[in-house]
Amino acid sequence: MRIKGSLYFDYQASTPADPQVVAAMAPYWRETFGNPHAANHSLGWAAAKAVERARGQVATLIGADADEIIFTSGATEASNLAILGLSKRIANGKRRRILVSAIEHKCVLAAARALQPLGLSVEQIPVDEQGSVSAEVLKSLLGDDVCIVSIMAVNNEVGTIQDLGALAELVHASGAVFHTDAAQAPAALPLDQLAQVVDCASLSSHKMYGPQGVGALYLRRDLHLELEPLLYGGGQERGLRSGTLPLPLIVGFGEAASLIALADSKGERARIQALRDSFVSKLKMYIPNLELNGPLIELRHPGNANILFPEVAAADLLLALQPNLAASMGSACTSGIPEPSHVLRALGLTDEEADASIRFSLGRFTDMGMVNEAVDRIAIAYKAAQSMQL
Questions:
Q1: Which pLDDT tens digit goes with each residue over 311-325?
Q2: What separation in angstroms does the CA of 343 have from each of 29, 101, 179, 212, 300?
Q3: Range of 276's domain?
Q4: Beta-carbon neighbour count of residue 40 at 10 Å?
Q5: Are both 108 and 214 inside the same structural domain?
Q6: What is the pTM of this model?
Q7: What is the number of other CB atoms lying within 10 angstroms of the CB of residue 114?
């Protein structure tokens, strides 16, 4: 995809809204714009019907029931709601520990740390050099004093896909609740069984070609009474998340969920992976000693290529690429923070190596012509960045 002349290789930061999503949202800005909580007129009824249709679409994506979907402003709010809301009620004199993987998104790490003043302890689950959580390591940390375990389905920086099924068995055997940040998962793998594996999951519309500003928490039905809301007010979302729902955004989210569910049957993931593999192999022709950070290809998000560039600072390389190509150092949600990626450090990279790494991510609107042009531009920029190091 080209945005104002710039090649877009930052799909894991945010995906562009699919044209079908934009079209589905259009009537809900000016025509069917009623408040979905207005119960006394037909515009409100129509809006409420549209919300419930979208709720069903999101539920179908992950194999849940519609009443197990709680709409939020995004995956950050959903993760906070799960970790803070469940911990405050489930945690008692016995279950006072929270386990989170070392490569979680900052929203999970920060939410867990926020519970420490309440007397809960937070422990990080280490990962191997590919970013995978070992079942043996997790088992050694579990006990009847663990309240919640949070392990992301697909990592946002290096693309590691976790074996949630195997990990969930261990978590459930210990009696703890299993949460997963699944924001990156819809573009990476089929999710139709997710609700049968985990107890709660965070989703984000703008990671699956929907609009920004809306997401959802999947919460197993029997846990609803255990959730302490973060927002109080009119009692929307069955009293679990008060506030007027953003009707057009939710409609777009539902449409995006339906489209991404069809991606595998249309071969979208395989096509993107082939483009990613071509991108990396062609780039190696110009820069033979570059390294791919993270997991093996079969365990990686199909569009992810987190690359360590020898002898250059990633910030200099990205600057040399402007305004021709968009990519990221680490997570877009932590950009501007002057510290090496906690994800890459957890994989064993040094601070210097982390600072020389760039995440490129391809998606639905990437084509081979863009890959070839990107490789050429990166090769030129790499030489320029090398000269800046001299």
A1: 899 999 999 999 999
A2: 39, 10, 19, 24, 15
A3: 2-17+267-389
A4: 7
A5: yes
A6: 0.94
A7: 15
